[in-house]
Amino acid sequence: MKVFVVGASGAIGSRLVPQLIERGHEVIGSARSPDKVQRLRRLGAESVVLDALDARAVREALAAAQPDAVVHQATALTGISDLKHFDRTFAQTNRLRTEGTDNLLAAAREAGVGKFVAQSNANHRYAREGGPVKSEGDPLDPRPVAAMRASVAAMNYVDEAVPGAGGIALRYGIFYGDPDDGLVQAVRARKFPVVGDGAGVWSFIHLDDAAAATVLAARARRPRRLQHRRRRALTHPRVAAGACEDRRGQVAPAFPAPGRPALRGRGAGRDGHRVARRVERQGQARARLDPALPELAARLR
């Protein structure tokens, strides 16, 4: 299978490309700059410079490549640290999730692509009711906080547009595993926002596991051609990769955000570094997808 990975040089893309190649797939990866294109070639992929917001360039790239599947991993999240002004920080990513998604879906349909997988997210989006563990069947928050409304709307758009066309939107958890993890830097700089008493629950997913789930989604049996219709009621498969079940049917654990007392008052600097070290040791709290991958594969068939 020939797979066109948009945003292939990013945190997930750079892990997804080798996993696809290892499974015998031909990979064409796109990046926004020539230096990142060279990195993709070293990973073994054919590479192109592409801006997902340039509709004409996207059409030309997919028409030339004629892929069997498109994986949309394009974001602009490198080095982010200001989560207080969420929508401002995610402004470019929100465009990629709306305009970019439209460009890629339209180009994929014109090129006769049969499979389409896009990045979505599970965190910060559910209605603030019920228990701390959510599934994709739980209701989303109809009134997100003001600073996140545009970002939540962009993720909702992906969740509607992609499955509505016959593709799959993967709701990942919060990523970790990148040596340049912006989350760690934000905690160290005391820029990480703590809501209320700090008892909120965040679900994490390792980047390698996110890439593995994406490979399964790309290999899933899908319609031969993407469809033009867009439905509000989602009837197509959508995977909540950030909160899955293991072989025993138990939900993978989610982990609480650091509490406010650890980052303020006497000893705040010392405690702040302790929190940062704890975040760096995320592997100790890693909820791997490995046990759940067979079940996930079965759901996607």
What does this structure look like?
This protein has 301 residues and is of the alpha/beta class. Helix content is 37%, strand content 14%. It is built from 10 helices and 11 strands. The longest helix has 20 residues, at 91-110. The radius of gyration is 19 Å and the shape is globular. 40% of the residues are buried.
- Let me know the average pLDDT: 77
Strand neighbour order, sheet with most strands: 3-2-1-4-5-6-10
Please work out how many helical segments DSSP would assign.
Answer: 10
Helix content: 25-40%
Strand content: 5-15%
Just give the CATH class. Alpha Beta
Shape: globular
CATH superfamily: NAD(P)-binding Rossmann-like Domain
Compute the number of structural domains: 1
Identify low-pLDDT runs: 229-290
Elements, N to C (H/E): EHEHEHEHHEHEEHEEHEEHH
From the 3D coordinates, which CATH architecture would you assign?
A: 3-Layer(aba) Sandwich
Rg is 19 Å
Identify the quaternary structure here: single chain
CATH fold-level topology: Rossmann fold
What is the CA–CA distance across the termini? 16 Å
Count of extended strands = 11
> What structural class results from the helix and strand content?
alpha/beta
Quick overview of this protein structure:
The protein has helices spanning 13-22, 34-43, 55-65, 86-89, 91-110, 149-164, 182-188, 207-219, 268-280, 293-300; strands spanning 2-6, 26-31, 46-49, 69-72, 115-121, 168-172, 174-176, 201-202, 204-206, 239-240, 255-256. With 301 residues, the protein is of the alpha/beta class. The chain has one domain: Rossmann fold.
